[in-house]
Write a structure and sequence with these properties.
By secondary structure, this protein is an alpha+beta fold. The chain is built from 4 helices and 5 strands, in the order E-H-H-E-E-E-H-E-H. The model has no long low-confidence stretch (mean pLDDT 94).
Length: 146
């Protein structure tokens, strides 16, 4: 499984990335918005707020935020979105995406790779556990929608 990182210079396909991200959004109930997704994605990558990884020609996508970690004077990589097309599931796509992200995070000196998912997403939680992610009992996730 080939995983490539979307870059400003067009190293990977912006069209495929936007299409996958729009499918992901629709999966969670958002209306289709291909032009808005493309513009948002380009803005995030160009502003260095998000790294985007594509699996295969267009089988899956993973977005990652790299944030400072002051206590360790390093970074924490946060997997924000992970989506695999239904027809590509159970073929190692998510595993390949997360392995590529972990490899790049480790090579960059990151302190931690974290992710979150819905509590009801049992299949994802099981997959994440099999590849080394562990729940953090000492962390409370809180939200304030603005």
């Amino acid at each position: 499984m080939t995983v490539t990182r979307l870059r400003e210079d067009g190293t990977a396909s912006w069209t495929s990335a936007a299409q996958l991200l729009d499918e992901y959004r629709q999966h969670y109930g958002a209306n289709p918005a291909p032009e808005a997704v493309t513009a948002w994605l380009r803005e995030q990558v160009e502003a260095a707020r998000t790294r985007v990884y594509l699996a295969g020609p267009a089988e899956g996508i993973c977005t990652v935020a790299v944030v400072p970690a002051a206590l360790t004077l390093r970074t924490v990589w946060l997997v924000r979105d992970l989506y695999v097309r239904p027809e590509a599931r159970r073929r190692g796509v998510a595993r390949a995406l997360l392995a590529a992200v972990a490899e790049e995070a480790l090579a960059s000196g990151a302190h931690r790779l974290s992710l979150q998912t819905e509590s009801a997403n049992v299949q994802a939680i099981e997959l994440y556990g099999r590849i080394g992610f562990e729940p953090l009992a000492e962390v409370t996730l809180m939200d304030n929608v603005l």
